Amino acid sequence: MSEEQQAAPPVDAAERVRGIVERVIDALGVDGTVDVIETDRQITAVVDGEDVGRLIGRRGQTIDAVQLICYRAAQRGAKERKRVIVDAAGYRERRREQVIGQAERAAARALETGREIELEPMSATERKIVHDHLKGRPGIETFSEGDEPDRCVIVAPLVTDE
Amino acid sequence: MRDLVEFLARSVVEDPGAVSVEEFEEDDELVLEVRVADDDLGRVIGKDGRVAKAIRTIARAAGARDGRRVAVEIVEADD
Questions:
Q1: How much is the pLDDT for A10?
Q2: What residues in B contact A68, CB-CB < 8 Å?
């Protein structure tokens, strides 16, 4: 129980998240600032600046990778698990609106055509947005199919027995 | 690049001191071999390889800046 047991004490989780995001944007050549907000349940790191598209990457794959590393780093030695969000220039909210728009269009088409509609591949977080958004929608059910990273939501007309 | 990958690997393991990264060129590709403590192998790889894949994705994005192809390999320690 000596103090030396933690020879290199990890700084607190929010600071670890900040350190990772700053290091990565530097490596990507993104000239930006990082704001970190911590609540009881969540740590959010928001990047603002030039060229944040480099941080986001194709289909958000780079920012999602950074978010996963931050989540694992924040968990280390922490008593409770907090969600970790890494965002850049309103990317998460913009994606959320796009995903809900796709869900709405797919639901309308599924009802119209009586066929299953497959959405584009999405991350687990984005798939959940679709499931939650269409939950309880009359005549519609949603489920996921395929393997990561190509796993996608299927919006299907509900088949009734009557 | 070596420093970045080492930093990312150290961020997710319990024993950061045991992390080492070797860097070499192979067929126009920059190869980074990551070694961690045995107990940390699962942490640096992650469920379904997700953590290793995330490290790879970030390293590739950083490499793409200078038009470099980058490969990240997690190597089991041989003793």
A1: 52
A2: 46, 50-51, 54
Helix, strand, coil shares, percent, chain B, to 5: 50, 25, 25
Q: Is the predicted ipTM greater than 0.90, yes or no?
A: yes
Here the tokens at position A146 are 């395929």
In order of start, what are the domains of chain A with their CATH numbers?
3-89 (3.30.300.20), 93-157 (3.30.1370.50)
pLDDT score of A46? 98
**E strand or H helix that includes residue A22:** helix A13-28
Cβ A87 vs Cβ A95: under 8 Å: no
Record the pTM: 0.86
Query: At the fourth CATH level, which superfamily is domain B2-76?
Result: K homology (KH) domain (3.30.300.20)
Enumerate the residues of chain A whose CB falls inside 8 A of the CB of residue B16. 8
Minimal CA separation from A83 to chain B, in Å: 16
Residue A3 has pLDDT above 70, yes or no: no
Is residue A72 within 8 A of residue A63, CB to CB? The reply is no
- CB–CB contact A28 B62 (8 Å): yes
Locate the domains of chain B by residue range: 2-76
